[in-house]
Amino acid sequence: MMKFRRLDLFCRVVDNYGDIGICWRLAKQLVREHGLAVTLYVDDLASFKRICPPVAEGAELQQVDGVTVRHWRDQDGSYMPHEVADIVIEFFAVDIPPGYIEAMKQCEPRPVWFNLEGLTAEEWVEGCHRLTSPQPGGLIKHFFFPGFTGKTGGLLREAGLEQERLQFAPAAFLSQLGLTPAEIASTRISLFCYPHAPVSALFEAWQTASQPMTCLVPEGVAADTVRSFTGGDGRAGTVATHGALTVRVLPFVPQPDYDKLLWACDLNFVRGEDSFVRAQWAGKPFIWHIYPQDENLHHKKLRAFLQRYAGALPGLADFSLRWNGAPSQGEAEDWAASWAALEAEAAAATVRAAEWQQQMLSLGDLASNMLVFAATLR
Ligand code: TRH
């Protein structure tokens, strides 16, 4: 089997943190678990630094956690064949610099070229996964899709993640984040959503909950609603209680700590792609706020996932659709009723979360699956 030594990963930060969040995880894992020399080309070091504080925003080239990080400024410049890696990954179909592609054409053998696509539960990806797309100069691009079935590349997951989760002690981590013993003893919910999420309606419903609840919100998330609930400036450390609900603003934490936050909560509101996948590895119930697309295309993706995940959880399915502004057949009149239906399913949702996690574990992990496939191409 041909041993690959070097891998280059091209990441463009469209907006938010998911693009770099996913690429950073993948880059680190390929170095740590597969011994590859990885160069991550990324165009936005400021967003990168939010999830990985050691990143130097002004550096053209830097080493971070064993990964070579190159600031990808533009599409200009020429490259020599020796600068081209054995495996080249474009994330989300970003355009690799033309000069780099010219150099790829001069490599013998040609590099393995992947377009790592976005995650969706829709069935069509099974037909597109691993498809080839011949390119000029004898180059061949392969589509590689993450997914939830054996006919896809599976999900990103580091080798030691599950072990680390099983050994994790939430109380120490939460008190380090500033939570009081009463907040730690309450029902804990993490809230990571896009600005258009109906948070104020939910806060209202939670204030009349039967048990004390603590909602943990990363700074900047649902900022307006958090400010009006807390009456503060919404900065990290801000906390307020009304009725049964306590809202505490957390700092935006380094990526590995975000996993711990998910492990420490009873229910996680997540969004986009990376936090969505991490919530599944946390083995806890979660509500997904999907990245909005034109003509509500995202509702189709959401329904495709709920069909696979929440077939036996009508309360969770209805709540998720409502949370994303998608029409739902659910009976619930309003948020209080929708929340009550979700709460009534808490035990079943927890069982389902653990079951689903095991199902996803059985698919292997995306990075290893990709390298196994790459080895068949040489
Ligand atoms: O930030 P996002 O909304 O990213 C999105 C999605 O990826 C979407 O698919 C993509 O099309 C769009 O960007 C352009 O959500 P996501 O994917 O969950 O990424 C958030 C990252 O931020 C994830 O890696 C976890 C990380 N994070 C931290 O490191 N610390 C924190 O405190 C929080 C809240 C998140």
Commentary on this structure:
With 378 residues, the protein is an alpha/beta fold. 39% of the residues lie in helices and 19% in strands. The protein has helices at 18-32, 45-51, 98-105, 125-128, 161-166, 170-176, 181-185, 199-207, 223-230, 255-264, 274-282, 297-309, 314-323, 335-344, 346-361, 366-375; strands at residues 6-11, 37-42, 61-64, 67-71, 87-91, 112-116, 132-135, 139-144, 187-191, 213-218, 239-242, 245-250, 267-271, 286-289. Strands 3-4-2-1-5-6-8-7 form an eight-stranded mixed beta sheet, with helices on one face. A six-stranded mixed beta sheet has the order 11-12-10-9-13-14, with helices on both faces. α13 (314-323) runs antiparallel to α14 (335-344). The longest helix is centred in the last third of the chain and has 16 residues, at 346-361. The radius of gyration is 22 Å and the shape is globular. It starts with 5 loop residues before the first strand and ends with a helix. The model has no long low-confidence stretch (mean pLDDT 96). The protein binds 2'-deoxy-thymidine-beta-L-rhamnose. 2'-deoxy-thymidine-beta-L-rhamnose is lined by residues 14-19, 21, 51, 192, 218, 252-253, 255, 258, 271-276, 291.
